[in-house]
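Each letter names a residue; the fold follows as tokens. Both lines appear below:
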Amino acid sequence: MSRRAVFVALTAALSAPLAASAQSAAFDSPIVSPEWLSQHLNDPGLVILHVAGNRREYSTGHIPGARMLWFGALAPSNPDLSSELPPVAQIDSVIESLGISDDSKVVVYGAQLGPTVGRAFMTFDYLGFGNRVAVLDGGFNGWKERGLAVSTEPAAAAKRGKFTPRVNSSVVVNGDFVNANLDKAGVKILDARAPNFYNGEGGGQPRPGHIPSAGNVPFTSVVDEKGMLKSREAIAQLLTDAGVKPGDRVVTYCHIGQQASLLYLASRYAGHQASLYDGSFEDWSGRSELPLVGPVKK
């Protein structure tokens, strides 16, 4: 064998483990099971985040080693709208304070698989984490139901990480984008609110109803009775029934952008490119120049 052939063979042999390592650094799905997480709690570079509305929720019980991510840091309100995405620099600072760096993998969970966890997933997606962020199926409730370990001890203080945001601007859209794509082929708007709000029955917004051409997929419909995300096939059927076609980009909205975050996660899980209308119906209904389908007449 020539020297060049030997060099090529050695290079291939040495690079193979590196390639496998790089490949294993990514999740193959945006959802991980409690069983998977219980076997990977101590993986190098894995950061587990307990999304909580207050410290008590975290301190009364969490997955061992999980760090608390205060939900208020992800979706603060401003004088105009509720629960909006903060500036990138602000989110970046929060992420680094949790010990997250460019090479970290992140699993987020909450008490249950619901809108707040979907919001956390969407935020990491927006910052460019892509397939390095996943959600724990069933949340902490599902974890405990399986008899897996629970801790009340706070996680050890994390060494500040170094994270470089790579913003995926397609993840979050505004009302002007939605208005320009109401009937555009390849884009489907979905309302994640309960049917009564979709039909214009209440909701506490300036104008009741829904965005024209929007289909209705209530956020509660994507999880089963055990609080687990439904199968890809079941979610795909829900989306199809609401008018989503293969290859469509899905744009989700709700009251203020919370419930729609869970539908965003479900749409990504089903294989669609997804976007969140952050201002959601609070923004849309408050802008009188935007079209609206009013209450359904009975």
The domain at 172-285 is CATH 3.40.250.10 (Oxidized Rhodanese; domain 1). DSSP finds eleven helices and ten strands in the chain.
